[in-house]
Amino acid sequence: VQLVESGGGLVQPGGSLRLSCAASGFTSEDYAINWFRQAPGKEREVVACIKPSDGTTHYTDSVKGRFAISRDNAKNTVYLQMSSLRPGDTAVYYCAADTYSGYGCYDITANDYWGQGTQVTVSS
Questions:
Q1: In terms of DSSP H, where are the helices of the chain?
Q2: Residues near 107 by beta carbon (within 8 Å), at least 6 away in sequence
Q3: Residues 6-25: pLDDT tens digits?
Q4: DSSP letter at 61?
Q5: 3-class SS at 87?
Q6: CA atoms within 13 A on the CB side of 4
Q7: How far apart, in whole angstroms, are the C-alpha atoms of residue 79 and residue 74?
Q8: Is the pLDDT confidence value at 52 over 90?
Q9: Does residue 86 surpass a pLDDT of 90?
Q10: How far apart are CA 111 and CA 124, in angstroms?
Q11: In the beta sheet, which residues pair with residue 69?
Q12: If you average pLDDT over residues 46-73, what whole number do you get?
């Protein structure tokens, strides 16, 4: 089982990026996939989540209306479209799969598999 993030980079405030989380070794649509981020000196925090059954999404308050999580089941990939980026969004972004508990969106320890992370830097 492997998750590989891509799409990070340097962007100016107000810009956009799309992160990808490509899954292999399992079918990502069968499980909750959650995006987290960790800024320097801060704890890892949830950003967005998508459930397996009905595709219900959840966002942390600070990204609502700016970020969108989605799936492409044919590509076994989950995306995080980020718009109106702010310097405060600067962090390493990780995707994670919750294959068992169903609480991975709310409990970081409930995620079974993690990607290696991709750096997002928002700066002028």
A1: none
A2: 101
A3: 999 999 999 999 999 999 98
A4: G
A5: helix
A6: 7
A7: 13
A8: no
A9: yes
A10: 34
A11: 80
A12: 94
